[in-house]
Amino acid sequence: WTSVISYEGDQRYSMMAQREAWYEDEEATMERHGLLGGQQVITRRGASTEHDLIRRREQIEDISQEITDVQEIFHDFATLVKDQRVEIDDIESNIMDTKEKTDEALKEVVMASDYSRRKRNALCYTLFFFLLVTVGVGIFAYELSGN
């Protein structure tokens, strides 16, 4: 915005300077040719000054409007930042909750793995025990039937 305002201001200043130079050239030309008297030059300068004052007032009003627009933009920007801060806080809270739940889930997976391993070991020991009992009963039955 600053560059736009500056550019427009530079253009206006340049136009004012050109117009003032033109008025001075015209007055000098008319005075040389005797077309204007002293009173007419003063009247023309007065009208030019009044016109410049009106134009400057309009420029000031334009700048005032631009400042109001910039103020509204900053206000909107502040509102967006405030709204986004709330959303960022929510996201941060959700990330923290997710991390805690992930840590708890990892502990449960480790416990489940340990439980599964112990269950497999118990099953193997039970099968081995039944195998020994079966072999023992088989040997005992063989000894009884062979004697």
UniProtKB/TrEMBL annotation:
GO terms for cellular component: endomembrane system; SNARE complex. The keyword Oxidoreductase does not apply. The keyword Cell membrane does not apply. The chain crosses the membrane at residues 122-142. Residues 56-112 form the T-SNARE coiled-coil homology domain. Signal peptide: none annotated. GO terms for biological process: intracellular protein transport; vesicle docking; vesicle fusion. Pfam families: SNARE. Residues 81-108 form a coiled coil. CDD domains: SNARE_Qa. One of its GO terms (molecular function) is SNAP receptor activity. Keywords: Coiled coil, Membrane, Transmembrane, Transmembrane helix. PANTHER family: LD27581P, SYNTAXIN. This is t-SNARE coiled-coil homology domain-containing protein. It comes from Amorphochlora amoebiformis.
